[in-house]
Amino acid sequence: MSDIETFRQAIESFISSRGWTPTRFGREIAGDPLFVFDLREGREPRTETRQRIAKAMQTHEISMDALGRPLRIGIAGLGTVGAALINILNNDGDAIARKLGRRIVVSAVSARSRHRERGVSIDEFAWFDDPVALAKSPDVDLFVELVGGEDGPALASVSAALERGCPVITANKALLARHGVALAAMAEKNGAQLGFEAAVAGGIPVIKTLREGLGSSSITRVYGIMNGTCNYILTRMGAESISFEECLKDAQELGYAESDPTFDIEGFDTAHKLAILTSLCFGTEIAADQVFVEGIARITQADIKVAADLGYKIKLLGMAQKRADGIEQRVHPTLVRKTSSIAGVDGVLNAVALETNHVQELLLAGPGAGGEATAASVLSDILDIARGTHVPPLGVPTDDLVPCTRAPMRVHEGGYYIRLNARDVPGALAAIATRMGEGSISLESVIQRPDLRASEPGVEQETSRTVVLITHETIESAVREALNRIASDGFIVGQPQLIRIEEF
Ligand SMILES: NC(=O)c1ccc[n+]([C@@H]2O[C@H](COP(=O)([O-])OP(=O)(O)OC[C@H]3O[C@@H](n4cnc5c(N)ncnc54)[C@H](OP(=O)(O)O)[C@@H]3O)[C@@H](O)[C@H]2O)c1
């Protein structure tokens, strides 16, 4: 047998004994995915290349033998996050194995279409049409759900894995916001872990920080920017004086916003993430349906400009804090001082701020979405599970969670920015001020901006002027009542704009 034939057989036997594909050998050992195919076709590598490969195979053989049994993962969902996860595992496989002392191998995958181009090869993995069958497969030690959706295949497959005691990792905030407590209870009952680092603020390790990083600290307030689409739109409106609609269109073209952006811009996505954080912060059940939600679609250039002149930026914030009458969970556009840390978080970035009894403010900022950043969070959960880390999914056992009692928004106290289109008639301003006074609302400033024309439909530009009121701390119900009275007096046109002010 020729020298080159012996070399080829050694490679074939290495590949088959490990269940590798020729492409993987080429990629991980030879540095050329087509190497084995070329060799099979009789193309001889240079002596130095052969020596380098023989040495790499030897090192690999030894390091593989030293490692424990591989952890076999099954991935359902091979879209933005799923494909990025496979890519990271391909590229960092050896480094991960060295860190863990065992290999992570993808044993099987599932998606809708088997033959879609995904930028990563899935040929070497077993294929399942049905994510539930994948979750039940005895060849899967850890199930990763990256399908999305609050019910359907995501819920069915995650439940199937947990029922058989198989650990689960998911990036699915919609699923957790709705079924998180039931799934956490199922995980506890069956002795399985449930990881969801990627579900809130993508690449920012906020779940681990809350669950394991804060020691005995108790959290007094959590707030943050948790939707990159909204933050991108508001940042661009601030930087370039363009309308909400134009920014949204750009965000869609750049892939930062979905073709149907409702879920993001109306604040529901932030509400899901906030509800998960609230549970971890305050030991309550997840109650996404009790979050007060307002989106950013009504923010105009007039608001952005007046806010900027007053030293503020407008951000879509999710906030939760304990009050005497329950838990306040709210998502709405918010005026924040330009000098605050949260105001510096611009573009598609996300940030979560935690205030505890020991730390005044801990701000975690970074990429809130994107395949690679999100997959990196999924991977950090995989590593935790592979190491055997076991913590209750929601920080405390589900039996110890308390119901999340909603603190009513009408008694929320804070400062308010109110923009009105006041009719350009004598007495209009005086009437508005009177109504505010009747509600015991003290005004910090009244700003008239005839240069900022209203942009709402039905508002006649020539006969109204933009008036902005900034209130001192007051009660939400008083502001709403005053605005109702002002509207019925007939001195304003269109809908008043009301934005809450938060001092951090
Ligand atoms: N993208 C992000 O930046 C990001 C950030 C944080 C969290 N997440 C969360 O991560 C999850 C995945 O997001 P993604 O952006 O990767 O979604 P995506 O790109 O839309 O991918 C979804 C994947 O699920 C598969 N799928 C859909 N329905 C299925 C079914 N019935 N059976 C089997 N497979 C099915 C799709 O298959 P086909 O490819 O064959 O159509 C696709 O591979 C979601 O829960 C999302 O909220 C995403």
UniProtKB/TrEMBL annotation:
Domain ACT residue range list: 417-500
EC number(s) per entry: 1.1.1.3
Keywords: Amino-acid biosynthesis, Methionine biosynthesis, NADP, Oxidoreductase, Threonine biosynthesis
InterPro entries: ACT-like_dom_sf, ACT_dom, Asp/hSer_DH_NAD-bd, HDH_cat, HDH_CS, NAD(P)-bd_dom_sf
Source species, domain of life: Bacteria
Keyword Coiled coil: no
One matching Pfam family: Homoserine_dh
Pathway of action: Amino-acid biosynthesis; L-threonine biosynthesis; L-threonine from L-aspartate: step 3/5; Amino-acid biosynthesis; L-methionine biosynthesis via de novo pathway; L-homoserine from L-aspartate: step 3/3
GO MF, one example: NADP binding
Family per similarity comment: Belongs to the homoserine dehydrogenase family.
Protein name per UniProt: Homoserine dehydrogenase
Taxonomic lineage from the root: Bacteria, Pseudomonadati, Pseudomonadota, Alphaproteobacteria, Hyphomicrobiales
